[in-house]
Specification:
The complex is a heterodimer of chains A (565) and B (47).
Chain A lengths: L5 H21 L6 H6 L6 H12 L2 H14 L10 H19 L4 H8 L2 H34 L3 H48 L7 H10 L18 H18 L1 H7 L5 H35 L8 H10 L1 H27 L3 H28 L11 H9 L4 H39 L7 H25 L4 H27 L5 H21 L5 H21 L9
Helix pairs in contact in A: 1-8, 1-17, 3-8, 3-11, 3-12, 3-17, 4-12, 4-17, 5-10, 5-12, 6-7, 7-8, 7-17, 7-18, 7-19, 8-12, 8-17, 8-18, 9-12, 10-11, 10-19, 10-21, 11-17, 13-14, 14-15, 17-18, 19-20, 19-21, 20-21
Chain B lengths: L4 H4 L12 H26 L1
Classes of the chains: A mainly alpha (565), B mainly alpha (47).
């Protein structure tokens, strides 16, 4: 694609490198492992809050979520309804306990409360899930950026990953938090600018209110559903319950998040950072989805590509030129009809005009579906899903010069922020919960601060290389990627169960909770392979089994006084 | 005004004001209710 101008490159490289250099410079005086893994303990709530948001907002958030709005409308926002409530529980219950015990990782708490076996289990489940997850966090945007901008895939992966490893190792947790703060500011700015530009690009005579009505007529403004329907993936109730458990597990027990708020200056700052996330997460997701919906409305009037994955369409056109040309002609006619129907609906939004618009949109969708069939036929084995290309394709084709660079910077910032918090948390867990703990278990004398710092940095680099390696070969295992995305949910329920028992069931001891965790994990893995259950439910089921089984086993074991923590 | 022991000594530091956590938690939960209601109204208007 040739629409990335010199100004875009200046904006892109200028913003990304300034953030990275500033973060690395400000945190360059790391002298010991404690500062490397926790920071200097000076962070205030705005930095913590933005850092928490940046950790969760991977590039996929800014690529796939607008695409979700484009294709499916606003209802995905309900997935986040449980999050504010989870922030309240974590602020009130988890944060004070972590601070009181002075833990560096969430799993260190499990040993305080139970024993070293439970700590290892929690840490191990985290390392597997987060290690693979961070690889995908790096791979997913790299493949989209490389296809769209013509960058080589492996070079894109190694450039993004390499930069993240360098600044994470130089400045540790403090560098991650500081860069994330500024990366999140770039992301929010880019998002707001994209939303404003897409609305401003609507044709004369189509006001923002008209655009919302058009989206409503085509089913893109179904935001909240109070129907208690277990088959539907997103409704108010599943978002509130499944989303609550998922957020409780992710923010309360996943080291990549726990490390963010444990770097705060006090319990109060950490709590405020979490509540900041609770207040702004839902509006942010709303805005991202709404931007996607407005891109959809924009393409009711402007000509979208027949298929958003341009390189794939070009290859299909090279293989079957006449058939693709015929489809393009059909597509143009269908779009003309849709455009006329859309203007008619704006002029007079009655039932008849709405029905005509829906019929026209159905014809357009039909031509698109035929294009996918043709691609599948002409290029066997090629991925025909093009929704992840919708937003960046719009950015490249329709954003003003300069803003294209800003929006690509948003994707890069999102990728870097999520990968950096992944790496520092993987390094922290490996060092604190495994390496240093093993030294203690083996009776080795306490090493120097320099030794611990070197071990922490080495663990971060090792995980960085492992993540890079996994991202590099991920394209060979397309089917695995979906599995890795679900992997988090396979482990999250069990990990959350360990913490729920630890925090709320004071009489349960180590062995029962271990048995509960093993039974829960085996059940969830069996359900994953043998049932069609939605993966959000794994969080609830895994947690519930750990709680129930550990209570049962505790009943039959001779009682011992619980540890006071 | 009577002089407290604190007042008699060196000038007291400004008291550290801890937020009222209960009220903040209620405010965050209330915001979710307001958002849900706003989304529902927007959806009704767009339909």
């Amino acid at each position: 694609m040739g629409r990335v101008s010199s100004l875009d490159w200046v904006v892109l490289l200028g913003s990304v490198s300034a953030i990275v250099l500033f973060g690395a410079y400000r945190s360059r005086h790391v002298r010991d492992a404690e500062t490397y893994l926790r920071g200097d303990g000076s962070l205030r709530w705005p930095t913590i809050g933005l850092s928490i948001m940046a950790t969760q907002a991977s590039a996929i958030t800014f690529i796939s979520t607008p695409a979700q709005g484009y294709a499916d409308g606003m209802r995905f926002v309900q997935f986040y309804f449980g999050l504010p409530l989870a922030m309240i529980v974590i602020s009130a219950v988890f944060v004070p306990v972590y601070y009181r015990l002075g833990v560096r990782t969430a799993y260190e708490y499990l040993e305080h409360r139970f024993d070293a076996r439970v700590r290892f289990l929690g840490g191990l489940l985290f390392l597997i899930g987060r290690g693979l997850g961070t690889g995908i966090t790096l791979y997913a945007p790299a493949i989209i950026l490389s296809q769209l901008l013509g960058w080589p895939l492996q070079a894109t992966i190694w450039a993004i990953g390499g930069v993240v490893i360098v600044y994470t190792v130089i400045g540790g947790n403090q560098a991650v938090s500081l860069t994330q703060k500024h990366q999140m500011i770039v992301m929010l700015t880019g998002l707001a600018v994209a939303a404003i530009v897409v609305v401003a690009k609507l044709p004369d005579g189509v006001a923002p209110g008209d655009a919302v009505r058009l989206a409503g007529a085509l089913g893109r403004m179904d935001i909240v559903s109070f129907d208690l329907d277990f088959a539907s993936r997103y409704n108010f109730w599943s978002g509130l319950t499944g989303g609550f458990f998922l957020a409780l597990s992710y923010f309360g027990t996943d080291q990549s998040q726990v490390q963010r708020y444990l770097s705060g200056a006090s319990v109060g700052e950490s709590r405020l950072g979490l509540l900041f996330n609770g207040l702004f997460k839902v509006p942010m997701q709303f805005l991202i989805l709404f931007t996607g919906v407005m891109v959809f409305v924009f393409y009711l009037f402007a000509r979208p590509p027949l298929h958003f994955d341009a390189p794939t369409l070009e290859r299909a056109a090279a293989a079957r030129p006449a058939e693709v040309a015929a489809l393009e002609a059909r597509f143009d006619r269908a779009l003309d009809e849709q455009r006329t129907a859309a203007f008619a609906y704006v002029a007079s939004p009655d039932d008849a005009a709405g029905q005509r618009l829906r019929d026209a949109a159905k014809t357009v969708d039909g031509v698109r579906a035929d294009a996918k069939l043709l691609i599948r036929d002409a290029l066997p084995g090629t991925e025909t899903r093009d929704t992840d290309h919708v937003f960046l394709s719009f950015v490249i084709a329709h954003m003003p010069i300069g803003l294209v660079g800003l929006l690509i910077a948003v994707i890069l910032c999102a990728a870097m922020s999520a990968v950096s918090s992944g790496l520092i948390s993987l390094g922290a867990t490996t060092t604190v919960d495994f390496y240093l703990r093993a030294r203690t278990a083996l009776g080795r004398p306490r090493a120097s601060a320099q030794h611990d710092l070197r071990a922490s940095k080495l663990a971060t680099v090792a995980w960085g290389l492992a993540v890079l390696g996994f991202a590099s070969v991920a394209s060979l295992f397309e089917n695995l990627i979906q599995a890795v995305n679900i992997l988090g949910s396979i482990f999250y329920g069990t990990i959350l169960g360990l913490f729920v028992v630890a925090l709320f069931l004071r009489r349960v001891t180590a062995t029962p909770v271990l048995v509960g965790a093993i039974v829960a994990e085996a059940t969830v893995v069996a359900l994953f392979f043998l049932s069609d259950l939605g993966f959000l439910w794994f969080n609830v089921i895994g947690c519930a089994i750990v709680v129930a089984v550990s209570l049962l086993v505790q009943l039959v074991l001779p009682s011992r006084p619980p540890r006071e923590v | 005004m009577s002089s407290t022991p604190e007042r008699r000594g060196a000038a007291p530091e400004a008291p550290h004001r801890e937020p009222r956590w209960g009220r903040l938690y209620v405010a965050v939960a209330a915001m979710l209710v307001v958002e849900t209601l706003a989304f529902w109204l927007l959806q009704r208007w767009a339909a």
